[in-house]
Design a protein that fits this description.
alpha+beta, 2-methylcitrate dehydratase PrpD, 60s Ribosomal Protein L30, Chain: A, 2 domains, two-stranded antiparallel ribbon, 18 helices, about 10% strand, globular
Length: about 450
């Protein structure tokens, strides 16, 4: 078995991580733009607002941008705030095999270092792709279902290493320094599933994104300042895998590293809603359009989903992860946008409550067998007068096997950004992201992200 720590360190500092194929560079720029959109829109939501105000009170040096604010702060605090705004709701990207949200961790960590160190756009791209690879591969080594039963959140525990790797590469760290950074990341790894009990999504934003981004940047900067740690965080007698589980498949961490990119297994959401609702919404709108269904005539909608997804979105307390609510406003408004998918007050609207009663969620055993590789939904609509319509949506738009185009992601970005930053600033961000590999200094992009 390969020495995992040594292999990772060699890759993080080596030339191979910078020799990305052109299609990977193109997809990375699209994911960067998508995550920036999540940060901008998330700055207006409660998890983002409280993170921004918390950071504002820390009095850190004004070194790097907190997105969609007038605030500049130190890189550790910027990583925290920008990561929590990126996952303030469910707008950010999602890695299919591990059910994690790498963009909301990796980009905030990388951007914080890239801006302060005046790194090029290409260096930022390389670091982001690297961060996805390290975060998601370590996550794959674990049995997340086994961990979940113990109340541990694999995504958060493993994400810190991706953030540390991305930050270390942008710091131009040497091999020994990276080894210490990974060890220090392991010391700060955290994540328990108590976030499920927080109805405000604040603890989830911290657990999934804020804490691992902050701790990963901290680990990289600590190693740069001379902090030391174990040389064998992944294979010593007391190593990270052994501390968390008895059944890790640690070889997954370096399997096909530099040959296959986890970014390409990461989806971008078409709708500003939770990932488990994406296929449902697409199926609903396709049926309505194809059969010219008048939503006022709908008597019942049955949604069949994989078991985990059915439980995740069944009448939840947040509008954008509540399938009954989302379909109710889709019927009433004829569309889903950022406003109606985040309207807590409307969840109590009598008309919405009436339409919610028309929706039934069913866990489907056959769809469960293909999950998480395939995120399918079966949507059945029954109308007054006896109409029956059904669709199986197994080619969800935005999935790795059916990715959104650059134009579609730009359209989504503008829907999220323009209400906050305006059309001119949003256009500048889109242009900067599209030409990112030719930028000599990421600070130029960062300047567009400020209020």
């Amino acid at each position: 078995m390969p020495n995992i720590t040594e292999t990772l360190c060699d890759y993080i500092v080596g030339e191979q991580a910078g020799r990305l194929p052109a299609p990977v560079i193109d997809r990375a720029k699209i994911h960067i733009l998508d995550t920036l959109g999540a940060m901008i829109s998330g700055s207006q939501l409660k998890p983002g607002r409280v993170a921004i105000e918390f950071v504002r009170g820390q009095g850190a040096p004004k070194e790097t941008v907190v997105v969609a604010t007038d605030l500049r702060t130190g890189p550790i605090w910027a990583a925290l705030a920008n990561a929590m705004t990126a996952h303030a709701d469910e707008t950010d990207d999602a890695h299919f095999p591990t059910v994690t949200h790498p963009g909301s961790v990796i980009l905030p960590a990388a951007l914080a270092i890239a801006e302060t160190r005046h790194r090029s756009g290409r260096e930022l791209i390389d670091a982001v792709v690297l961060g996805y690879d390290v975060m998601c591969r370590i996550n794959k080594a674990f049995d997340r279902h086994w961990m979940g039963k113990r109340g541990l959140h694999a995504g958060s525990l493993c994400a810190v290493f991706g953030a540390a790797a991305a930050a270390s590469r942008l710091l131009h760290a040497g091999r020994e320094q990276v080894r210490h950074a990974l060890a220090l990341a392991g010391t700060q790894a955290s994540g328990v599933n108590t976030w499920r009990q927080d109805p405000e999504h604040i603890d989830k934003a911290l657990c999934f994104s804020g804490a691992p981004a902050r701790n990963g940047v901290s680990a990289a900067l600590m190693a740069a300042a001379g902090f030391t740690g174990t040389a064998t965080v992944f294979e010593g007698e007391e190593n990270f895998f052994k501390a968390i589980t008895d059944n890790a498949n640690s070889e997954e961490t370096v399997k096909e590293l530099g040959e296959r990119y986890e970014l390409l297994d990461t989806s971008i959401k078409k709708y500003p809603a939770g990932q488990p609702i994406q296929a449902t919404l697409e199926g609903y709108f396709r049926l309505v359009k194809e059969h010219r269904i008048d939503a006022r005539q709908i008597e019942k909608i049955v949604v069949r989903l994989p078991d985990t997804q059915a439980r995740t979105i069944n009448d939840r307390h947040m509008p954008d992860v509540n399938c009954q609510y989302m379909l109710a406003v889709a019927m009433l408004d004829g569309k889903i946008d950022f406003q109606n998918s985040h309207d807590f007050e409307r969840m109590r609207d009598p008309k919405v409550l009436e339409y919610k009663k028309r929706v039934e969620i069913v866990a489907d055993a056959e769809l469960t067998k293909a999950f998480p590789k395939v995120r399918s939904a079966i949507v059945e609509i029954a109308t007054q007068g006896g109409g029956r319509f059904e669709i199986l949506l197994d080619r969800m738009p935005g999935a790795p096997y059916n990715p959104l185009t650059r134009a579609e992601v730009e359209e989504k970005f503008n829907l999220l950004s323009v209400p906050v930053l305006g059309e001119r600033r949003s256009r500048m961000i889109v242009d900067a992201a599209q030409d990112l590999e030719n930028s000599s200094d990421v600070a130029g992009l960062a300047a567009h992200l400020r209020l």
